[in-house]
Design a protein that fits this description.
Layout (H helix, E strand, L loop, with lengths): L3 H33 L14 H10 L4 H24 L19 E3 L8 H4 L14 H14 L8 H10 L7 E5 L8 H6 L4 E6 L2 H14 L4 E4 L12 E7 L7 H14 E12 L5 H13 L5 H5 L3 H7 L2 E10 L4 E2 L15 E8 L1
């Protein structure tokens, strides 16, 4: 448990992030739009335009811009400092370290000590987390706790992931569900809860996260198979899945690996199987999209801006994943939205969108 001082530090970071999103960003965006002579554009997935580069000078010229940028990166660094201190002061969970073999159930843990982690994955401290998530169990514990604060405290009980499962995934008699980039299992658990008769498999590169996922799943009584593998080469059988899903994965991958991951999803799915991916998409509002592009740099997510320029739906079509489209998603409770775009929102927020496709 965090000490009173640590709890106060976490509360400060959370409160400051809310002020940054709900007050600093809207003021900056309004003044930048006025200076550039533009209005807020209708926000809809896939709306990337070259106007993002054109509006950048008006945004950067605002007196509030350095403060906005400083808060974004500075608060993220402070988050990891406080969370690391909390985790390291509670060493009891260090006993989670498992042997590099399958662990007793419910569920299974399949770690691959020979798996070579790619350079693009180990060379960057994604999200500014020192040491990344892959080096040891402490890194995994830090990431698990930090994820709660990153989501502004709105996902403590994984309701965000349940919302995705509930609103974006059709109710069917699934036999096998594969969750790519499953992390510490928060995106995977809701699928087993919603479809208990299905075999649910979570795949990730990071052994520490998979150890946490398996431990937490066992504590919940969830029979889930966790497997250490590359999302573009899972080693699972072809034509064996009814549903392949991923949450916040594509924007973490270099563009060639995005396409390779979609190709792996197409290989895993049998004809009629579904692809459902929750990630981010540009909105067509150049000021908001610039904020996401620069979030990519300030938050050490080097491939996010590149994803926005990728023709993901076109790749899906080429790979035999038909009817591919991005649909808007509202994390505040509505989930998958019926219309072509998001409701107007002045605050900074992630432009969540769902990639839908079906194996032909």
């Amino acid at each position: 448990m965090p000490t009173l001082e640590q709890r106060a530090d976490l509360d400060f970071v959370l409160a400051a992030r809310r002020v940054w999103a709900a007050r600093v960003y809207p003021a900056l965006a309004d003044r930048a739009r006025a200076a550039a002579g533009i209005a807020a554009a209708p926000a809809r997935p896939g709306g990337w335009t070259e106007a993002v580069a054109q509006v950048a000078p008006a945004v950067h010229a605002q007196p509030a811009y350095p403060f906005f940028a400083f808060l974004e990166r500075g608060l993220q660094k402070q988050l990891w400092r406080v969370v690391t201190e909390v985790v390291e002061s509670g060493a009891a969970e260090a006993g989670l370290r498992a042997p590099q073999t399958t662990r007793a159930g419910p569920g299974t843990l399949e770690l691959d000590p020979a798996l070579e982690l790619p350079d693009w994955y180990t060379a960057c401290d994604f999200h500014l987390q020192p040491g990344g998530v892959w080096q040891g169990i402490t890194n995994g514990l830090v990431y698990r706790l930090g994820a709660r604060v990153v989501m502004l405290g709105a996902n403590d009980a994984a309701e965000f992931h349940r919302l995705f499962t509930r609103t974006a995934v059709p109710v069917r008699a699934y036999q096998r569900i594969v969750d790519l980039g499953c992390g510490f299992g928060k995106s995977t658990f809701p699928f087993k809860e919603a479809f208990p008769s299905a075999e649910v498999i979570g795949v990730d590169l990071a052994a520490p996260l998979l150890e946490l996922a398996h431990s937490d799943a066992a504590a919940r009584g969830l029979d889930i198979r966790f497997r250490q593998a590359n999302c573009a080469a899972t080693g699972l059988e072809a034509d064996s899945a009814d549903l392949v899903t991923a949450t916040m994965l594509l924007h973490e991958l270099p563009p060639p690996l995005v396409r390779a991951t979609l190709a792996e999803a197409a290989r895993l799915l049998h004809p009629g199987g579904l692809l459902r991916v929750l990630d981010f998409q540009p909105t067509g509002d150049p000021v908001r999209d610039l904020a996401m592009v620069e979030h990519s740099a300030r938050n050490n997510e080097p491939f996010m801006a590149e994803l926005f320029r990728c023709d993901v739906t076109g790749w899906c079509t080429e790979l035999g994943l038909g009817s591919a489209r991005w649909r808007p998603f509202d994390e505040r409770g509505a989930g998958l939205l019926p219309g072509p775009g998001w409701p107007q929102r002045p605050e900074w927020h992630f432009p969540w969108a769902v990639l839908e496709a079906e194996r032909q």
